[in-house]
Amino acid sequence: MQHLEHIHGGNVNLASRKYHLPVQDLLDFSANINPLGPSPRALAAVMNNLDLISSYPDPDCSELKAVLAGHLGIREDLLLMGNGAAELIYLLVRVTGSKRALIPVPTFSEYGLAVISQGGEVLEVAMDEKNGFRLPLKAIVNCLNQVDLVFLCNPNNPTGRLLNAKMVEYILDKAFSLGVMVLVDEAFMDFIPRREDFSVMSRVGHFPNLAVLYSLTKFFGIPGLRLGAIAAPGKLITRMKASKDPWNVNVLAQVAGVAGLRDQDYLERTSRIVRQEKIFLFRELTRFKGLKPLPGAANFILVDISESGITSGKLTELLGLRGIMVRDCMGFSGLEGRYIRLAVKTHSENIKLILALKAIWEGFVK
Question: Which CA distances in Å does 317 have to 3, 49, 150?
Fold first, then answer.
């Protein structure tokens, strides 16, 4: 098991203690959250509904589910809301009784942890690093008869690699013939232009072995409120609903989610700024000797630092001492010591990162 600080980014409290800096003085590039922060409408909704904390939240998240179903273009009865997408990963594994899961790596750590927590086993298939971490389709299909569940992260975290919907459907078809469930994690799909070419959300209910995860914490900038959803066939949703905690989504998360989904201006502004800043950050990173940013589709950039002469742990520490948190990819299978991941932030914040890297490079990289 990796040390806990290597499993996730975004632990500002740990970084504050480690680098002896106040939390407000830290710039967090380690968590892939909307650089604009929460929608102004979501913040207003939270402030205007604080009195609701004296009552129990709606256990069915009725209003939120209706608005989200419209946003995603699927039926409400195929959705279940959760206290972040992570809760729903563990719930799905528990309810399906999965004992052996296939996971292409590197990817999000909680898939494997959820399976192991239920006494199951994980079969890892390495993505093709020499080819930009392309999904090894043939190897995955050949392993399907050894598992009962497949995890696909699209776009993948941490590589940003995107699968088109046809490739996912091909895997779904092969898995269905063997009675294998496929969970597609689309936590970052809102950041993708022409998402209809890549998302399989609209196929939920048509494929009996398909479940799709959705996160409202990333794009809508509310990780502290914890809010996610899963779309799955009706029978599976019914079983998961019966097995979850009764009030798993708090009332402020519900009102923030509704308001954020209805803020069209915020949705468009986020997409525009992330697209512009990602181009800027990627270009600036290529100017550093020994840094190789990888093209990716999400709101973050995976950077190969193996030719810089600095390990990922050392670079993370040097940036941390300057008040900048980045994601050391030590916790991702196959990336140990050679990669960091950077969230795309605002222009002024991205410039601060670049200036910090320049200062480090002047001292270390010849």
Answer: 16, 41, 35
Give the predicted TM-score (pTM) of the model. Answer: 0.94
Main-chain dihedrals φ then ψ at residue 155, nearest 5 degrees:
-65, 150
pLDDT tens digit string along 233-259?
999 999 999 999 999 999 999 999 999
pLDDT at 6 over 60: no
pLDDT of residue 14: 76
Work out the number of other CB atoms within 10 angstroms of the CB of residue 202: 14
Q: CA distances (Å), 39 to each of 12, 72, 266, in order?
A: 21, 18, 6
Angle between helices 85-96 and 110-117 (to 10 degrees): 40
313, with CB counted inside 10 A (0-12, 13-18, 19+), is middle
Work out the angle between the directed axes of helices 347-364 and 312-320 (0-180°, nearest 10).
120
Q: What is the pLDDT of residues 260-274, one digit of tens each?
A: 999 999 999 999 999
Quick one: CA torsion of 72, 74, 78, 79, rounded to 10 degrees?
Answer: 20
- Are β-strands 100-105 and 121-126 bridged in parallel, bridged antiparallel, or unpaired? parallel
